[in-house]
């Protein structure tokens, strides 16, 4: 099991785990004390679980990180930011199988990443396009 942290995971394996325990997320934060980044909008891809070695394999494969979620030992693997999340778009674009619910989530998440890149996510038009 210790070896798992140094291997790279296959695409099919990653997709299967994501469909069971993964989520796409776009976080919005307000930091009034910071002039240059008062309002921030960042995409996140995460997969929850409770085995640190297992999530280290995800970190090794995708250059992400693991973090503690709760006091019970639940952990999650996380990719945060446009540059890191763009790296997994191809994986999901080429997914040979994906259920409708997860596909719709992915399409909205990908659209939000594209809008963040061109700095239009916080415009009224950009927000509405993510909700449709």
From TrEMBL:
| SUPFAM superfamilies membership | Homing endonucleases (SSF55608)
Per UniProt, the keywords (alphabetical) are: Chloroplast, Endonuclease, Hydrolase, Nuclease, Plastid
Q: Which superkingdom?
A: Eukaryota
| Record carries keyword Plastid | yes
Q: Does the keyword Plastid apply?
A: yes
Molecular-function GO terms, alphabetical = endonuclease activity
Protein name, as recorded: Putative LAGLIDADG homing endonuclease
The scientific name of the source species is: Jenufa perforata
Its gene?
Answer: orf132
